[in-house]
Amino acid sequence: MTTPTASAAFKPKKSVALSGVTAGNTALCTVGRSGNDLHYRGYDILDIAEVCEFE
């Protein structure tokens, strides 16, 4: 019989206590009200991810 490791057994709870609270303002990125769209310097992040290379 094996026992699960502490990291495998531990699952943190999802907190929604700060949902909707503004974390800060920036000129670099904007997030849509639904939280599903991200723009970096006015460009959709999905468009950037398709054509840019990252290290």
Automatic annotation (TrEMBL):
GO terms for molecular function: 2-methylcitrate synthase activity. The keyword Acyltransferase applies. It is an enzyme of class 2 (transferase). Its EC number is 2.3.3.5. Keywords: Acyltransferase, Transferase. The keyword Methyltransferase does not apply. This is 2-methylcitrate synthase. It comes from Variovorax paradoxus.
